[in-house]
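Page header: ASSEMBLY MODEL / two components / 795 residues total.
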Amino acid sequence: MEFELKYTKAQEEFRDEVRTWLAANVPDGITARPRSFQESQAIYRMRRELGRRLGAQGWLYPSGEKQYGGGGLGLDQIIVLEEETARLGLGLPPYYDSGGKMGSASIRVWGTDEQKQRFLPPIYRGEVRSWQLLTEPTAGSDLAGVKMTAIRDGDVYVFNGQKIYIGSHHGADRYWTIAVTDPKGKRHQNVSWFMIDANLPGITTQPLYLLSAQSEGETDEHGHKNIIYFDNVRVPADCLVGGENNGWKVASTHLEVEHSGQGNIRTNPVWIALLAHCRTHNRDGRPLIEDPDVRSKLAEIFSRLEAVRLLSTRNFWMVYAGEKRSYQGSQVSYLRKTTNLWLTKAILDLLGPDALTNDPILGAVGGIAEAQQRRGIVEQHPGGTTDIQRVVIARRLGVGAREPQQAGKLGEEGMARKNPQPVDA
Amino acid sequence: MDLSLTPSQILIRDSARTFVQRHVPRADLVRLAQDGDTWNPAWFAQFREAGWTGALVASEFGGLDLDPLSAALIFEELGRGAVPSPLIASSAIAVGLLRGCAPSEQRDAALTAIADGQMILIPALRLPDTSWKGVAATASILTEANGAWVLTGTKVFVPFADAATHFLVSVVTRADMPPALAIVPAGGPGIKTRLLPGFLQANHEVVFDQVPIAATAILRADGPSFDDSLAVARVMVAAYQVGGMSEMLDMSVNHSNTRVQFGTPIGRFQRVQDHIIRLLNAMDAAKWTTYEAAWAIESGRDGIARSYLCASTASDSYFEAANAAHEVHAAIGSDPRYGLTLYTRISRTMYELLGPPGWQRKRMADALAW
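Prediction written out in full:
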């Protein structure tokens, strides 16, 4: 076994190219923590502009097919791209684009050629930002229980209903959503998916402020989720993806991507900041790191985080090597969520009430500890609750079933390319 | 990055798995435990034939000199089968301690004898009424009589002492001298072993009463810490624990699908599923910290720190996994004839084999130079 990535000469050359490009195109302040809504908006605009530039390079969605505006890159190059953007504190895309990620993955499997041509290029080129709209007031974990209707009326579907806990702030251009297309149909045989224009008449948005908001990849005090209302919204019928009332099959692809984190090899940034804090801050007249109780707690935290990191590394490798996965994606999602919630108490034990304030003087770890206290709670639900993750794990193990459940159908972006394509100039 | 096994590692794993499947049926283990026997010399003879007694011994001493992961795969399969034997104590822990000793004729002869199966060298370390603070802190002070060294003292929780041809005893010649290890023949006068009763596997008290120790049998440390020289041994112990958890997972999934209550397999109940997932998560955490530690040692990374991490994780995990498996099996799992308790007992026995998890984590923090 080899747990470290080894880079080829071609990868290092590509890294040089990426690093040079990023240095010339990533503006200062793009990862700053905004102090006002205006600053938050300005940063969002920077991120969208960077997205368009990355898109022009084929680097915004590097695994997307070239014919649709993606990069057509293999994992060898994608790894370098992700490492170099992560080094600057950015993700790919550098803004919240859940509908782009999950929607494009689903369209690649279930969309017609015409739909791929119409929907994918604007996503891949960064021209649109898309949100996924799944949860409703009475349908959270039970996705098949959605109530929003989309009733066919000639060339359009008429939408009525509401979605909740959606997106971030600063709006979106498109919505990737699921709705009931046959109100009298059987459960699982009555829903369909749509990629729709977010600016259609009849759509209204209401901000929803939660305990913590991660807007475009960062914790943003000014960020929020949304409730989105549909009131007789007329959506062109050609926005239906995967066939009418065939939505539960499409959902298997969407949920496979959403539930099965692709894995990564990064060390938890909260840990890095926490250890540095304990090395550089004193308590009782000595550095925290020299206190035996602190060392013991840090060792406990490190051990738990390392187990999660290694399982995430395993998932990363499984994607990289094209290995067939079963329970591993949901396992890492479950462990990340439960470990982060456990971490809130561990950090409070370690740092005391300093962990609860983001006061510029008293707040520990530059406010990161306080943000973690809130995020550890809020992050329990997105992408499937811990209970849902356990349901998936049990099914994949074959517990209480005749056979283990198979993973949902994925397109090429969910699989490794063992023979990466060369990087074009 | 490549987290797959090499063809030769797959071969080694499969050969160990085949041995367990063919020669160590669970019914035999249950009978062995009921008869009060601790191990089966016939199995050990086959370990010797396969070269496993010298798995971690350098080839110059007749060993296989396997890389840590390849050797760990053998121990993982033995752990999956809950195979009781002095192999870990002698061929992993004692070999690790000997590797921490300065080269000498006696050390090299012991490594050679372990590799060819002639010597079963059992570490006798722990002192009664003393908390674990590492190997050095377990040293018994030798006395001098008529120009020779004499050992008088008691060592407790010595694994598979009944299998020993020799003991490797932590000693010190004077209170102000660095600790050392003495190779002591097991059958000599003044040595008494007693199997400790209770919920533990093959642990003994060994009493040494006026036992003469030849000066040449005393081996000095060759580094700062005997504990650090046990890095590979910690990975082997952890791998054995991982194997045990894998089998408990399979037993639990199978039981949950075949045990019917309220008219349905109990695996349909989410609370039962939760126990199995707890077991799975414990097992995978231990497995991947163990594999990574093996790689870190082999590739010259921070292998010592990683070995402490995998040791604490595997001990905590095996304990937790056993608890979860019992929650799945309920009363059936508590019947020793069923076989689950073979694993549970090992999870308890091995919990502190090379120090408690909290101590392992403390050493990890030190090794990471925090």
